[in-house]
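Data availability (excerpt). The following record was deposited with the supplementary files.
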Amino acid sequence: MFDFKNKIFNLTSAADFNELALEIFQYQYKTNSLYKDFVDMFNIDIYNLEHYSKIPFLPVDFFKTHEITTGHRKTEQIFLSSGTGKSVQSKHYVTDVNLYVNSFRKAFEYFYGDIKQYSIFALLPSYLEKEGSSLIFMINDLIKQSKNSGGFYLNNTSELIDAINKHVTNEQKLILFGVSYALLDLSEKYTLNIPNLIVMETGGMKGRRKEIIREELHSVLCNSFGVDTIHSEYGMTELLSQSYSKANGNFHTPLWMKVLIRDINDPVTIVNHGHSGGINVIDLANYNSCSFIATQDLGKLNEDGSFSVLGRFDYSDIRGCNLLIT
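Predicted structure:
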């Protein structure tokens, strides 16, 4: 029995990450027939790879057309991407829901501390209106774990503002998770001054508003909510882990994730920090599906190890978790 779960959440060094990534790659190659067929097209010696950057990254669009699972566990839950219009939804067949719970709880704690110190509010109408959202699943659990007043809000924004205002004088930390267009709608109706509020945008206009660059979005939201910075969450249906930004759209990964940037014209070539290209994600928590994903997002690595999301490839569907370049 592979003890990946214990290893994933106890990594202490870059060497440990590399060793485990290569171990999971071997496991997925052997027990995931789709991924094996994909890897075989590269004609590489899979048993002599020395670094995770040499591992082939599966295009994320395969989650739209195939059931991607590794091993022989039964599916416990299927998460669906939000989709827009008539776009095909991705499906993530999750065979260990508790693994997902462990991942997002530990990532939140890693970046923000004890969840019990927070009240969590969620303004995610486009996600609530559809079934199978991994984001809704995550935030619902965080709300329950916090054991403080909070909750989901759809169109009852006045009730949301009243609920947040009741906590302004408390020492309780506040987080408002919101899809971008809903936060902009809220900012146009209310001008607030809540410096202890963490506004966490999850990206995406969902076809409801014109796409704008992240800097413009954050400037508007800072002015409206009376905060210095806007936080962001980078996640997607196809991954079981999230990255977070506390300012300026610079995302950091938990210890069991890595982001690499691939050359736009040569997808097997990884570029250095400072160069833009396609975002490749290693999510070791994805060992039951595929841990090596080539996304359709454009980005770059920064010198401090963080990464920035610059937009999306022109030919890909609009995704709910990212903003486009205008």
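Summary of structural features: The first helix runs from residue 4 to 8.
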